[in-house]
Amino acid sequence: MADLDDLFAQIPVQDIANRLGADQGEVNNAIKTLVPALVGGLAENVESNEIDSTELESAVAEQGSSNLLDGGVQVDQVDEKQGDHIVSRIFGGNDSDAVASALAGGGAGGSDLIKRLLPILAPIVLAYIGKQLGQRGPAPAGTGAGTQAGAAGGGGLGDILGSILGGGAGVGGGGNNPLGSILGSVLGGGQNGGLGDILGGLLGGKK
After folding, report:
1. How many CA atoms lie within 13 A of 54 on its CB side?
2. Are 91 and 99 in contact (CB under 8 A)?
3. How far apart are CA 115 and CA 119, in angstroms?
4. What pLDDT does residue 108 have?
5. Given this model, what pLDDT does residue 103 score?
6. DSSP summary character for residue 32
7. Which residues contact 5 (CB under 8 A, 6 or more apart)?
8. Nearest-angstrom CA–CA distance, 144 and 152
9. Residue 202 is inside which H or E element, if any?
C-alpha cells in the first residue's frame, strides 16, 4: 500500500547528504517535511477546480514509467533541471528558490538546504506516485481517467495521493484540505502560519 513510510524508504538519504556535502541528520529532517509538502502540493493541484492538473498528471505518469526507482534510486541519475521544472508545476509557477524561502520561514529547515533538496526529491516523489498509479492499472471505461474528475475519483491519482497522505479514500474525501490537516501537523500542527498556510499561499490560495 502506498504511504509516506514506503515513500521515505525509497529515498537514499545518505547518498543525497554525501552529494550535497550536508549533515545526514539535517538532510533526513528536511526530507521528512519536504516529501509530504510535495505530495500535498500535488494533492491540492488535483483537488482544486481552479487549476488544470492535466500536465502535472502527465508528468507523474512519465516519471512512473522511468527506471529511477528500479533497483534503488541512484542520486546521480536524478535530473535536477527536470526537478526544478516539477517543483514549479506543483507550486503554481514558484521556483525552488521561492518555495525554499517560504518553507524555511515556516521552520522546515535552512533555505539553502531546502533549495538544493527540492529538485532532487521532486522526481523521486513523482516516480513513486507514478509507479503506484501504474500498478493499479487503467481506470474503468467512462471514469474520465487523465482528467481532473477522473484523477480525483477511485483508482485515480487523487486516490493514490490520499492513500499516501493517510486519507485512504481519495484527496477530496471529507472536504478536508490536506495542506492544512496533514502538512500543518508536520510542523507541530494547528499553528498559525504553519506549513499548510505557506503552501496554500504558494499555490495561490489564502495567504
Report:
1. 5
2. yes
3. 8
4. 61
5. 79
6. H
7. none
8. 10
9. helix 195-202
Q: pLDDT band for 125, please (50, 70, 90 cuts).
A: very high
Q: What's the CA gap between 188 and 108, in Å, rounded?
A: 11
Mean pLDDT of the chain: 76
pLDDT band for 199, please (50, 70, 90 cuts): low
How far apart, in whole angstroms, are the C-alpha atoms of residue 148 and residue 146?
7
Check if the beta carbon of residue 77 is closer than 8 Å to that of residue 170: no
| Start-to-end CA span in the chain (Å) | 34
Half-sphere exposure (Cβ direction) of 117: Cα atoms closer than 13 Å:
37
Neighbours of 71 (CB within 10 A): 7
Q: Return d(Cα 47, Cα 152) in angstroms, integer.
A: 7
| Residue corresponding to grid cell 516539477 | 86
Q: What is the pLDDT of residue 56?
A: 82
Report d(CA 96, CA 139) in Å as an integer: 33
Q: Is the per-residue pLDDT at 49 higher than 70?
A: no
**Distance between CA atoms of 44 and 51, rounded to whole angstroms?**
9
193 Rama sector, left if φ>0, alpha if ψ -120 to 50, beta otherwise: left
